[in-house]
């Protein structure tokens, strides 16, 4: 089992059972099972890259309009 990036764990209680989940340091989402935290953080990173690319395109267009 992989070690999650976050050392912050929370317990989720459902139907008299307790599950240990990792807490996303960026958005505060509880991720269960904890080994899925890496994939969750990768989605954050991909969204950031897509947003940066769109901003670059917008800046290029705005620069041409001047």
Structure annotation, total helices: 1
Order of helices and strands: EEEH
| Major pleated sheet | 3 strands, antiparallel
User: Can you give the helix content as a percent range?
Assistant: 40-55%
Low-confidence stretches: none
Q: Report the C-alpha radius of gyration, rounded.
A: 18 Å
Strand residue percentage: 15-25%
Outline, from the CA principal axes? rod-shaped
**Can you count the beta strands?**
3
Measure the end-to-end span.
55 Å
If strands are numbered along the chain, what order do they take across the biggest sheet? 1-2-3
Structural class by sheet pairing and helices: alpha+beta
* Average residue pLDDT: 89
Lay out the secondary structure:
Elements: E1 9-14, E2 17-23, E3 30-31, H1 37-65
Antiparallel strand pairs: 1-2, 2-3
Describe the structure.
The protein is α+β, with helices and mostly antiparallel strands. The protein contains 1 helix and 3 strands. Strands 1-2-3 form a 3-stranded antiparallel sheet, with no helix packed on it. The longest helix is centred in the last third of the chain and has 29 residues, at 37-65. 6% of the residues are buried.
């Amino acid at each position: 089992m992989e070690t999650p990036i976050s050392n912050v764990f929370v317990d989720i209680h459902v139907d008299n059972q307790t599950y240990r989940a990792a807490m996303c340091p960026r958005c505060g989402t509880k991720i269960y099972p904890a080994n899925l935290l890496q994939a969750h953080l990768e989605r954050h990173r991909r969204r950031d890259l897509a947003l940066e690319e769109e901003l670059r395109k917008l800046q290029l267009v705005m620069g041409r309009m001047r």
